[in-house]
Amino acid sequence: MRAYSPLVMWQVACTYVGTVIGAGFASGQEIVKFFSIFGISGIWGTFAAGLLFAVLGGAILKTVSNFGIKDYEEYIAFLFGTRKSRVINGLITLFLFAGLAVMLVASGSLFSQLFACPGWVGFLITALVLYGILLLDLEGVLWVNMLLVPGLIVLCVGVAAASLVCYPKAPAAVGFEVNLVGNNWLLASVLYVAYNLVLGTVILSSLGHTAQRGGIRGVMAGGIILGILAAVLCMALFCQGEPVIRQELPMLAIAQQISPWAGWAYSFVLWVAILTTALSNGFGLLKKFENRVAWPKAVIAFGIFIPTFLLLGWRLAQAVAVIYPLLGYLGLIFLAALVVNIIKPQKYL
To answer: Which of 69, 118, 236, 293 lies at a CB distance of 3.0 to 4.6 Å from 74, suitable for a disulfide?
Structure first.
């Protein structure tokens, strides 16, 4: 048994958090669509999501470690069997392409708002940075997350807390039209975990070697961090009300309200969030196609960005409102299979 390592635990925790905290989360769009619209009940939803992330993520890592699973395709075959896994793997490939495209769309929105430039500028700049990091493989993903995610967490919490202290407001009702998430806070929370856990599994299934060195503790810590962070952002957003929530990047609007410097700092946070989640999507696609074609890594890494141009003209709010809930409903299939396997003790013998 390998010795426990706090560094490994922290790397895994940061990678798990960084996988989930994309531009949709850090911008506030995901928090609004899945939690803040339910008011106080949305806070309970964030805690439920954090608990599910911790428990289910820990179970995934334990399984891939116990059975020597090396990547997410092996794990999907373990859950569904060889025949069904082909269909599920096809759906996950769509998940990954959609997630990568949404992150690049978010980057375009961010650069456009900050620098008054066309959205494709931010889209291409971020794609080039991601391309360079993907060539470093898994170690590059782990180290980038470990170095960037702590700052991301601190600034997200700092801006949300400052808005509650400096601009205290009573929680306001938010009059949103019927949306794909539905009108039940618990369903919304489960949908949120469902689509994020698909992406989380892509990364966790490659980290089985970390389980005995602190990986499982790291995953569970990451889930708790996600729940707390979502709760703080949720409270800040629904206390600000519709003038802020209706904006394309609501958390950035709150930061700019605090001070111009806070706005610029939070802009960097958003870009970091884009990078960390897009890396997880890109890494999953890279591993998938490396197992199928004997092309150089540089060529494969370049190719995975080509389909993302289909979303080049989209806005972030549009992408989050349409694509993410649909991915959540598809993710329920995966979530159900995961829960069934957790409650079957013979699976872990």
So the answer is: 69
How far is the CA of 28 from the CAs of 207, 244, 246, in angstroms?
A: 29, 10, 10
Greatest mean pLDDT range, 8-12, 45-49, 257-261, 333-337:
45-49
How many other β-carbons are positioned within 10 Å of the β-carbon of residue 114? 16
User: Could you give phi then psi for residue 4, rounded to 5 degrees?
Assistant: -60, 140
pLDDT digits (tens, 9 = 90+) for 185-236: 898 899 899 888 887 888 888 888 888 888 899 999 999 999 999 999 998 8
Residue 145: both structure tokens together: 């997350």
Integer Cα distance of 95 and 207 in angstroms: 20
- The alpha-carbon radius of gyration of the chain (Å, integer) is 19
DSSP character string of 33-82: HHTGGGTHHHHHHHHHHHHHHHHHHHHHHHHHHHTT--SHHHHHHHHH-H
| 182: alpha, beta or left? (left if phi > 0; alpha if psi -120 to 50) | left
Residue labelled with tokens 């039209």: 177
Q: Is the pTM of this model over 0.90?
A: no
For residues 17 and 225, is the Cβ–Cβ distance under 8 A? yes
Which residue is listed with tokens 């004997």?
294
Q: What kind and span of H or E run contains 196?
A: helix 185-204
Hey, what domains does the chain have and what are their CATH numbers? 6-348 (1.10.4160.10)
- Within a 10 A sphere around the Cβ of 307, how many other Cβ atoms? 15
CB neighbour class for 83 (10 Å; exposed up to 12, middle 13-18, buried from 19): exposed
Beta carbons within 8 Å of 255's beta carbon, 6+ residues apart: 159, 262, 263, 265, 266, 267
The residue among 128, 99, 121, 37 whose CA lies nearest residue 273 is: 99
